[in-house]
C-alpha cells in the first residue's frame, strides 16, 4: 500500500518514480512559480512535472536550485520531468529541443523526458532521439504523453527501447480502462494529468458522499483513487496550503466498493484535446 508522499513506483528500467508530484501546467514563468516549487519541495514533494510548451522551465529550475541550495533536498532525490513539444518533433530537432530545456532548467540531466503528443509521421523519429538521449545517460527514463493504444503499438513495432511512462488525461469521468490494462501488460507506467478534471468534479454527489464518509475533500478522494489504481498523479497547485491538502492522501484507504462507485462515474469525457484529433 502506498503510504507516503515520497513512496515510488519502479519503472521497467528499475528507476524509481515518485507516485505523487507537482504539475505546473498553465502556471506563468516568474518568481511566484520558483517559490511554489521550493514550497512543494519543503513540504515533501520530490517530483516536479513541466514541459517546453508551458514556457516555465526556467522558473521550475530556479525553484529546484533554491531548494537544493538551501539544503532542503539533494538533486538526486528529485524527479524532474519535461516534454518535447510538437513543433520540435523529429530526430535532430528533438535533440536540440532537449538541450534548450536542459539549459532553461539549469540541470545536468532530466529524470523523465516525454513526447508531448503523438504527432503523426514524426513521433517515431522523435522517439529515436529520446532513445539516443537515454543511451547517453542524459535522461534517466523516457516515455510518451497522450498516446492511445494504437499509437503505442505503432511505436513499439520499431522501438529499440520501450517507453517507461505514458502520461494521459485521467480522472473519474475518463477512466481509460483499456489503456490502463494495455499499459500494465506492456510494463508502461500510467501517469495522470488533469486528475481533478480542472475542478469540474468537486460538486459530484457520489464523490461528495464518499469524501464526507472518509473526512476528506473530493480532491483528496480523487487523488487517492488514482493512487489505488496504481496511476502516478501530478495535481497542479501554486498555493502552499493546497499542495499540503492535495498530499494528505496517505492516511486513508478507499474500499473496493468506493473504488467501484468512482469507476462508475466514467463517461469517456475529456477536458483536454482528443489524441486522435488534435491539430497543433
UniProtKB/TrEMBL annotation:
Keywords: NADP, Oxidoreductase. The record marks 83 as: Lowers pKa of active site Tyr. CDD domains: AKR_AKR5G1-3. Substrate binds at residue 116. Pfam families: Aldo_ket_red (PF00248). InterPro entries: AKR (IPR020471), AKR5G (IPR044500), Aldo/ket_reductase_CS (IPR018170), NAD(P)_OxRdtase_dom_sf (IPR036812), NADP_OxRdtase_dom (IPR023210). GO terms for molecular function: oxidoreductase activity, acting on the CH-OH group of donors, NAD or NADP as acceptor. It comes from the Bacteria. The active site is at residue 54. Coiled coil: none annotated. Gene3D superfamilies: NADP-dependent oxidoreductase domain. Residues 33-266 form the NADP-dependent oxidoreductase domain. Belongs to the aldo/keto reductase family. This is Aldo/keto reductase.
Amino acid at each position: 500500500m502506498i503510504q507516503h508522499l515520497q513512496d515510488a513506483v519502479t519503472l521497467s528500467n528499475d528507476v524509481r518514480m515518485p507516485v505523487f508530484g507537482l504539475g505546473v501546467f498553465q502556471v506563468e514563468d516568474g518568481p511566484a512559480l520558483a517559490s511554489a516549487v521550493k514550497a512543494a519541495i519543503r513540504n515533501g514533494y520530490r517530483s516536479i512535472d513541466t514541459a517546453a510548451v508551458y514556457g516555465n522551465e526556467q522558473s521550475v529550475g530556479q525553484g529546484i536550485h533554491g531548494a537544493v541550495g538551501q539544503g532542503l533536498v539533494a538533486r538526486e532525490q528529485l524527479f524532474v520531468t519535461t516534454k518535447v513539444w510538437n513543433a520540435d518533433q523529429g530526430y535532430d530537432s528533438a535533440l536540440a529541443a532537449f538541450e534548450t530545456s536542459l539549459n532553461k532548467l539549469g540541470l545536468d540531466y532530466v529524470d523523465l523526458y516525454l513526447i508531448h503528443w503523438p504527432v503523426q509521421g514524426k513521433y517515431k523519429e522523435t522517439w529515436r532521439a529520446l532513445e539516443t538521449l537515454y543511451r547517453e545517460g542524459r535522461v534517466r527514463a523516457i516515455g510518451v504523453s497522450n498516446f492511445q493504444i494504437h499509437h503505442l503499438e505503432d511505436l513499439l513495432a520499431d522501438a529499440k527501447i520501450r517507453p517507461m511512462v505514458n502520461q494521459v488525461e485521467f480522472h473519474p469521468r475518463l477512466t481509460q480502462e483499456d489503456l490502463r490494462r494495455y499499459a500494465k501488460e506492456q510494463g508502461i507506467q500510467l501517469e495522470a494529468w488533469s486528475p481533478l478534471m480542472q475542478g469540474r468534479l468537486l460538486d459530484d454527489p457520489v464523490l461528495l458522499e464518499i469524501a464526507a464518509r472518509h473526512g476528506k475533500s473530493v480532491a483528496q478522494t480523487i487523488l487517492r483513487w488514482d493512487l489505488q489504481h496504481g496511476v502516478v498523479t501530478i495535481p497542479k497547485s501554486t498555493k502552499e496550503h493546497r499542495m499540503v491538502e492535495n498530499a494528505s492522501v496517505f492516511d486513508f484507504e478507499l474500499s473496493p466498493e468506493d473504488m467501484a462507485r468512482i469507476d462508475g462515474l466514467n463517461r469517456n469525457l475529456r477536458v483536454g484535446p482528443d489524441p486522435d484529433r488534435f491539430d497543433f
